[in-house]
């Protein structure tokens, strides 16, 4: 990375911090200052409370946060709450505080109108980065994933092995997704303990590729004395791996015919050694950070010619809309450096139409502020604030079925959501339908039943529970128990369907019964056939 690229990355990281991307705060930044490797930001508290560092503040106080600027991110070092200074602006108050308490004269500083995103010029030039660093990394990951998914997968696997304790043995299954790691500790020529980790590559989370931990163990002494030479460690590691796979099969319900977990690649790593993982094409895997960072630098670099900015709509107000709490799915994102961010998946309500396109049920991945967490905890609507002029990406489905849609105007998205939430809910017709002998409609399952069954299949948690029904033997020996289990899964899916589709008709008992039948036909046909025979 040359000096120009380092300046682009550094400026984009600073811009992210000011805009609350890599340091989410309850209030927008109104002033900032930079000196060396230190960045200060200032905002105004709109309520009394205590921040994450334990600093108490009153409503109207000026909150000054000091950050250390690193190579890949900024780190919050301290925070200070000061009474508002009516005789000076917030920028002047920030600069006075820095000179008095830090003894520094900032290299540059700036102020921002409320709710406006900062754009900072790259030192030595007159143009800002094309985008923030986090946005560049996210887009770079998606771009590389779309153009060469095998390269991304092997790069992520290598990145995980780069962060292991040495010596360690690793085994990659032939599917290219399941990675098993045995990390050893040793003393006086003998292996004293090991830690086992089973990881799985996942590119269906909606938040870019990730390594998900399937299983792990605490430090465990070997069952028999093991020397720390390569031959002994390889033999002991392979035994531990094979024992884990047998246990994995038993817990998954496979008892008659053991599942074969073939090893495609493996190795033993010592300090200073880089793992060598090959792509299906036979190429050595590059480091994940190198692959993504190169693409991110291209995206963050300023355009050769400055482009005229479109006139922003409602410059003084950020587009925002209140979303029912049931349409938000909180989760925690963990960065490569171990830091964690609160995020949420926001589900578009039924009836959301943007420029003639129905996006009901589509999702958006957004940061979750402390105010959002309080709103959801209290059962109040969650306020979704969007940066003016920044396109919003919606996604739907997962894996090969995943689709994305970019909404260029955040105001259009907010308007469409508000319209969908305020549209009256259709009244369900409760008139009796023509039925057959088994009291089901002659026309087959209702649309609501089909949607509930589909909700079950698309939900990761209920799908995993359903798969355990498939792999077990209970549906052959006790079909009634299978039916009870599936009915409970369908009821759970129906609740989630109702929460994500507030304007859709609420599933009734007949819909739930039909959804159960649809699910059984796919999951446990024997149980379904036996019910029909008994009837």
Please provide a brief summary of the model.
By secondary structure, this protein is α+β, with helices and mostly antiparallel strands. 35% of the residues lie in helices and 23% in strands.
In round numbers, the mean pLDDT is 82
Instruction: Work out the count of structural domains.
Output: 4
Helicity range of the residues? 25-40%
Rg (CA only):
28 Å
State the end-to-end distance. 72 Å
| Major sheet size, sense and barrel closure | 5 strands, antiparallel
Weakly predicted, low-confidence segments: 426-442, 524-535
Q: Tally of extended strands?
A: 21
Shape: globular
Total number of helical segments? 14
Oligomeric nature of the chains: single chain
Strand order of the largest sheet: 6-5-2-1-7
Description:
The chain starts with a helix and ends with a helix. The protein is globular. Strands 6-5-2-1-7 form a five-stranded antiparallel beta sheet. Helix 3 (133-147) crosses helix 6 (288-300) and helix 12 (479-500) packs across helix 13 (509-523). The relative contact order is 0.08. 35% of the residues lie in helices and 23% in strands. It has four domains: 3-129, no CATH class; 143-293, no CATH class; 320-422, no CATH class; 447-523, no CATH class. Residues 426-442 and 524-535 have low confidence and may be disordered. It has 535 residues and is of the alpha+beta class. The protein has helices at residues 3-18, 90-102, 133-147, 149-162, 230-251, 288-300, 370-377, 410-422, 447-458, 460-471, 474-477, 479-500, 509-523, 525-534; strands at residues 31-35, 38-44, 49-50, 56-57, 62-69, 74-82, 108-111, 168-173, 178-187, 190-202, 210-216, 263-269, 320-323, 328-334, 340-347, 353-354, 357-358, 363-367, 382-385, 392-396, 403-407.
């Amino acid at each position: 990375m040359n000096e120009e690229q380092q300046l682009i990355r550094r400026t984009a990281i600073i811009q992210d911090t000011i805009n609350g991307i890599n340091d989410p705060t309850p209030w927008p930044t109104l002033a900032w200052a930079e000196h060396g490797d230190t960045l200060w930001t200032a905002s105004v508290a709109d309520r009394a409370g205590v921040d994450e560092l334990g600093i108490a503040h009153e409503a109207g106080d000026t909150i000054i946060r000091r950050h250390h600027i690193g190579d890949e991110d900024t780190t919050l070092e301290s925070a200070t709450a000061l009474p508002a200074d009516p005789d000076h602006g917030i920028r002047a108050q920030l600069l006075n505080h820095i000179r008095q308490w830090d003894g520094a004269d900032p290299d540059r500083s700036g102020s921002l109108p409320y709710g406006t995103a900062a754009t900072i010029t790259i030192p030595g030039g007159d143009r800002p980065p094309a985008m923030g660093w986090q946005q560049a990394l996210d887009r770079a990951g998606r771009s590389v994933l779309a153009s060469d998914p095998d390269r991304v997968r092997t790069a992520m696997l290598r990145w995980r092995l780069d962060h292991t304790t040495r010596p360690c043995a690793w085994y990659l299954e032939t599917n290219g997704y399941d990675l098993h790691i045995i990390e050893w500790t040793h003393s006086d020529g003998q292996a004293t303990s090991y830690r086992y980790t089973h990881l799985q590559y996942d590119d269906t989370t909606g938040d870019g590729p990730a390594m998900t931990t399937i299983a792990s163990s605490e430090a465990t002494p070997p069952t028999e004395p093991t020397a720390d030479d390569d031959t002994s460690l390889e033999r002991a590691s392979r035994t531990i791996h094979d024992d884990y796979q047998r246990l994995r099969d038993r817990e998954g319900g496979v008892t008659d015919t053991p599942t074969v977990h073939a090893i495609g690649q493996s190795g033993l790593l010592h300090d200073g050694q880089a793992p060598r993982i090959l792509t299906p094409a036979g190429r050595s895997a590059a480091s994940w950070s190198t692959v993504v960072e190169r693409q991110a630098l291209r995206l963050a670099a300023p355009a050769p010619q400055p482009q005229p900015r479109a006139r922003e709509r409602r410059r003084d107000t950020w587009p925002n809309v209140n979303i029912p709490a049931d349409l938000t799915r909180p989760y925690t994102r963990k960065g490569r450096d171990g830091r964690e961010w609160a995020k949420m998946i926001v589900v578009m309500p039924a009836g959301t139409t943007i420029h003639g396109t129905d996006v009901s049920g589509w999702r958006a991945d957004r940061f979750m502020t402390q105010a959002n967490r309080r709103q959801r905890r209290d059962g109040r609507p969650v306020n979704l604030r969007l940066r003016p002029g920044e396109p919003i990406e919606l996604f739907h489905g997962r894996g090969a079925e995943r689709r994305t849609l970019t909404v260029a105007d955040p105001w259009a998205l907010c308007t469409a959501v508000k319209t969908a939430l305020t549209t009256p809910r259709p009244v369900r017709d409760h008139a009796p339908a023509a039925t057959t002998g088994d009291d089901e409609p002659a026309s087959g399952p209702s649309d609501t039943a089909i949607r509930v069954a589909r909700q079950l299949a698309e939900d990761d948690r209920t799908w995993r529970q359903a798969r355990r029904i498939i792999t077990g033997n209970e549906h052959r020996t006790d079909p009634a128990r299978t039916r009870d289990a599936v009915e409970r899964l369908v009821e759970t899916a129906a609740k989630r369907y109702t929460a994500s589709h507030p304007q859709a008709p609420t599933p009734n008992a007949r819909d739930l019964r039909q959804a159960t039948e649809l699910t059984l036909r796919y999951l446990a046909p024997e149980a379904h056939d036996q019910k029909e025979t008994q009837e």
